[in-house]
Amino acid sequence: MSPAKWDITNLNIAAETSIGRCWYKATGRVLVFDGFTKIWSITSNEQLLPAIERGQALAVIDIKPQQHFTKPPARYSEGSLVKGLEKEGIGRPSTYAAIISTIKERRYVEQTDRKFFATELGEVVTDKLSDYFPKIMDVAFTRYMEQQLDKIEEQHLDWLGVLKEFYSPFKQNLDIALKEMKHAKAEVYPSEYKCPKCGRKMVYRFGKNGRFLSCSAYPECKFASPCDRDGNMVEEKVSEHKCPVCGKPMVYRRGRFGPFLGCSDYPKCKTTLKLDKQGNPLPPKPPPEPTGIKCYKCKDGELVIRQAKKGPFLGCSRFPKCRTIVSIKQMDKLKELQSAGKWPPQTLEQVNQILGRKKAKPKA
What we know:
Blueprint: E1 5-17, E2 20-33, H1 78-88, H2 93-105, E3 109-112, E4 115-118, H3 120-132, H4 139-153, H5 159-180, E5 189-194, E6 201-207, E7 210-215, E8 224-226, E9 237-242, E10 249-255, E11 258-263, E12 272-274, E13 289-294, E14 302-308, E15 311-316, E16 325-326, H6 331-339, H7 348-355
Antiparallel strand pairs: 1-2, 3-4, 5-6, 6-7, 7-8, 9-10, 10-11, 11-12, 13-14, 14-15, 15-16
């Protein structure tokens, strides 16, 4: 049967009101030839309009005022970011993973529900790079450089010419940046808050865990407070737990690894307690248990029993200066050898023989 035909129709309806003429608009389609739909009905999301003639009077049945807002673009996930890089011609499949890991490790972004959110540090770094290196921060320039590298690979372009074209203006921008650009974490931004200790203005600073509020009189006044993503001061919440070292109340804090309990007398007392998923404090790790076995590597420390997720192990008491690790199963054997004067041995080969370690294969 023949296909059906519709006319896409735009209706402009005028209405005289007390404030003047108002216009109502409607868009839809009008069936002009039924074709196969005469015996085979179909459904569509498009609005079907009745037959209307120009100048025809219409009656009002109901009016429902509704307000609509445009939605911002969806935030990037790791998958959609890779697709965006591919679309813009930035990077190659071998560099996509490195790009994502870099912005995460340097805390330029953070992930919530698998979506990327720019951190305050990431925004400051982006602004500084855009000010001092506008050409490099341009997506078109990155795409152009990728094309130039492809041409070099195909042996159609002189790589020295491409390098000179890039490096000469870059060197000029770099010299200016080295003289004038201030480190992102050294930037200080004013805030609307006053220090509760000395009454002076508080400023925003950057630390290991992101942006925080600090007294402008630092180091004379060392008061500091965390803030949320919008820059609002987060007041410390006192818990019912007492510090196991000094006995003062513990307060809830948040670090790079999540929430934890810290002593309210910080920095005099730096005691912290980890929290489980339910927010309950975890007991502190037991202190290392001495064994009396000398460390074969540094000869100054002794092997102590430490606890890990996979179970106990032997480690040097001088950690982190000495990172010697031995299986806990060797403890009784090493004690016997030390009492017999055969531990610690003089060479690493003797250590490997005693511990049953395989000799590492030389790299090609």
